[in-house]
Amino acid sequence: MTLLLSPDGRVVSHPLAAPPRFSRPAAPLRARTAYAAAHVIPLPWAENVPGAPAQLDWDATLGFRRYLWSWGLGVADAMDTAQRNMGLDPAATRELIARSAAEARAVGGALVVGVGTDHLDSPVAGLDEVIAAYLEQLGYVVEQGAGAVLMASRQLARVARSADDYRTVYDAVLSQVDGPVLLHWLGEQFDPALAGYWGSADVATASRTVLDVIAGNPGKVAGVKMSLLDPAAEVALRRALPPGTALLTGDDYHYVDLIAGDDGGHSDALLGAFAAIAPAASAALQALDRGDSAEYRRVLGPTEALSRHIFAAPTPYYKTGVAFLAWLNGHQPAFAMVGGLHAARSLPHLSEIVRLADAAGALEEPDLAAHRWSALLATHGLAPR
After folding, report:
1. CA 269 to CA 176: how far, in whole Å?
2. What integer pLDDT is reported at residue 340 of this predicted model?
3. Whole-number Å distance between alpha carbons of 112 and 191
4. Residue 148: in which H helix or E strand, if any?
5. pLDDT reported for residue 121
6. Alpha-carbon distance 309 to 47, whole Å?
7. Domains in the chain: how many in total?
8. Which member of 14, 168, 184, 327 has the greatest number of CB atoms within 10 A?
9. Which of 109, 134, 106 is nearest to 120 (CA)?
10. Are 100 and 75 in contact (CB under 8 A)?
């Protein structure tokens, strides 16, 4: 039993379901490549206020990555879920990459990390600065032995004047990579500063630029991580990609159908949502490995309503829901985030996460979740009436 907030502000009782008994995979997942985009966990006693350097609880942060690997998922680190451009400063980002890479080597976990330009602390004059910034971060990631995701760049979006400018930057960076990397297309729903990325607000036109970049750099692009919350656009790009180039869905609204796929193929996954629902995501992918698409949908289908709520507008604040669920499930000691971002969602929003997580089987220890949520409500002066 737990408590929920009713629309009129009353606190009401809500029965909790028993958690599903999912099993960790005995062998690597095969049918789909799947990365969970992981968040970071702060020291709850530190000065993690807006604008302050991030101070992380490394034991908890790395422990959460080990938890994701234990379910057979890869980890996508130092990306937007880890609060890049929303509280995770460049120094903390570099340390996170180094520590996660070392942990991945120790446990044999799959890891890709974000390569961006966000360490630039002054206005960018032109494309050459953007290229140099990408290459600086790329060199560091290569030194750590991690796979690279070329993240969408706010700085490039600010100075680019055409699709040719995007081609110029990506061609220059990709010419310097030794092994294949992932490209990252993050829509303006996730970051308004990225509106019109790839040189056009028209998705079909922008997709052609992405395809041009891939075609111009054979063997350098393993896949595209696409987060536009537009399944039709994702399927269109997926079908147009050259053989051997994956489409990794970042669509936290429609991932069930996109990963299931159709006669023309399927999407792999790189999702913040999978960090919130790792056991269910793993169990569903294990079902696909067995060829059991009905079980895949039975397990993963109910999680999509939870994910849609966590990623509701304003979407950039979805990280709060991911951290909240990690706290409810015992993966971090406090409901706290760098930059004070735990205050970015309301109590009614969090209450709905509790309800939907229960319905989706995403509360791993319901009694612990109920205790922690009730304590948070009490802190805000809310108790059953």
Report:
1. 26
2. 97
3. 21
4. strand 147-150
5. 78
6. 29
7. 1
8. 184
9. 134
10. yes
Q: How many residues does the chain have?
A: 385
Task: Give the Å distances, CA to CA, from 294 to 253, 288, 291, 300.
Answer: 20, 9, 9, 10
- Identify the burial level of 57 via C-beta atoms within 10 angstroms of its C-beta, where 0-12 means exposed, 13-18 middle and 19 or more buried: buried
Q: Is residue 16 included in any domain, yes or no? A: no
Q: What are residue 3's phi and psi, to 5 degrees?
A: -120, 145
Radius of gyration of the chain (CA): 20
Residue 174 covered by a domain:
yes
Whether 21 is in a domain gets the answer no
CA distance 130 to 173: 10
Q: Give Cβ neighbours of residue 177 (< 8 Å, ≥ 6 apart).
A: 138, 148, 220
pLDDT at 21: 92
The pLDDT score that the predictor gives to residue 110 is: 98
Query: 325: domain range?
Result: 2-7+32-379
HEC states along 16-28? CCCCCCCCCCCCC
Residue 384: inside a domain? no
Averaged pLDDT, groups of 10, the chain, 385 residues long: 87 92 96 98 96 97 98 98 96 98 98 97 88 98 97 96 98 95 97 97 98 97 98 98 97 98 95 98 98 98 98 98 98 98 97 97 96 95 79
In angstroms, the CA 149 to CA 147 distance is: 7
What CATH number is associated with residue 148? 3.20.20.70
Q: How far, in Å, are 163, 204, 259, 365 from residue 336 at the CA level? A: 40, 40, 32, 20
Encoding tokens for residue 318? 């979805």
Distance, in Å, from the CA atom of 107 to the CA atom of 154, rounded to the nearest integer, reads 34
pLDDT of residue 70: 98
Structure tokens at 335: 């409901």
